Amino acid sequence: MHLKHLKIYVSGYKDSPYRIEWMRYEPDAPYPELVKTIPHAALG
Hints:
Layout: E1 2-3, E2 8-11, E3 22-25, H1 33-37
Antiparallel strand pairs: 1-2, 2-3
């Protein structure tokens, strides 16, 4: 799913038994390079 206003694509959350969400960022997305390039877990 493309979240145009956030400049990211997300997928997998509904299909994953562990609720893992995959994110891909547009090149000009306003996030730190560390967030855009290094795999990490976020807890909410």
